[in-house]
């Protein structure tokens, strides 16, 4: 893989939360639908639908995106340098619209562009696409999958790269980082705490910072899986 190929990859990670702070803020209809959705794990854990509502953020039907962090290699630098920024805010439609505009921009709308995330094919990419539809945003070409053959879909997934065809095997990004000697992004928080930090602590900035660090780890893992040298810390810029 050469530099030009790397510069056509947009690395990303998303953080999501439940669509409302509390279960009771949902409409009666959505409350009943969440009870049905959560029934299969509610019984196993002997908890109520209300107690389990903090998990709603992992489902696009009951959650919302609060940040999308993206990383890309600059075209301006002869040496590979990664730049990481984020779209974030309490207005989901606005941040998704801004992200869509990035994907529709001259550079990232080209046929050579690839999106890359960890477990992105199962979570990040479909979640973003579903929330764009909910918010009435036209899907950028990179997220339009209908009618495409698997090899025509411009998505890369570090989990899939690590599986080597073993579809029964799940490995977290943090575990891959560990075995490749990459510093963890979980030094402050982890994904299970995002909902509470967003709603209880009202600290979106902390969530954004964590999301950006996840993208940095994602890129280092991707380089390791591609048998390429990892980036030096000074060549990673958080914007």
UniProtKB/TrEMBL annotation:
CDD domains with a match to the protein in the record: DNA_polB_like1_exo
Transmembrane segments: none
Coiled-coil region list: none
Highest taxon in the source lineage: Bacteria
Residue ranges annotated for the YprB ribonuclease H-like domain, each copy included: 54-221
Keyword terms: Exonuclease, Hydrolase, Nuclease
Gene Ontology MF annotations: exonuclease activity; nucleic acid binding
UniProt-listed InterPro entries: RNaseH-like_sf, RNaseH_sf, YprB_RNase_H-like_dom
Protein name, as recorded: 3'-5' exonuclease
Organism field: Roseivirga spongicola
């Amino acid at each position: 893989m050469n530099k030009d190929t790397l510069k056509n990859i947009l690395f990303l990670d998303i953080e999501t939360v439940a669509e409302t702070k509390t279960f009771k803020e949902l409409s009666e209809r959505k409350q009943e639908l969440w009870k049905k959705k959560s029934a299969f794990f509610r019984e196993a854990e002997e908890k109520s639908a209300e107690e389990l509502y903090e998990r709603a953020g992992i489902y696009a039907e009951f959650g919302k995106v609060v940040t999308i962090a993206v990383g890309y290699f600059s075209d301006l630098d002869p040496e590979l340098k990664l730049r990481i920024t984020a779209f974030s805010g309490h207005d989901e439609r606005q941040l998704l619209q801004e992200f869509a505009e990035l994907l529709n921009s001259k550079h990232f709308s080209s046929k050579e562009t690839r999106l890359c995330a960890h477990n992105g094919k199962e979570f990040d990419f479909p979640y973003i696409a579903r929330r764009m539809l909910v918010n009435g945003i036209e899907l950028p070409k990179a997220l339009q999958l209908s009618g495409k053959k698997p090899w025509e879909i411009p998505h890369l997934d570090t989990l899939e790269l690590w599986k080597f065809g073993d579809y029964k095997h799940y490995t977290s990004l943090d575990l891959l980082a560990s075995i490749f000697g990459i510093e963890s992004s979980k030094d402050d928080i982890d994904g299970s705490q995002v909902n509470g930090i967003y709603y209880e602590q009202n600290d979106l900035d902390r969530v954004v910072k964590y999301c950006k660090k996840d993208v940095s780890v994602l890129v280092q893992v991707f380089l390791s899986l591609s048998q390429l040298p990892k980036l030096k810390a000074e060549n990673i810029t958080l914007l």
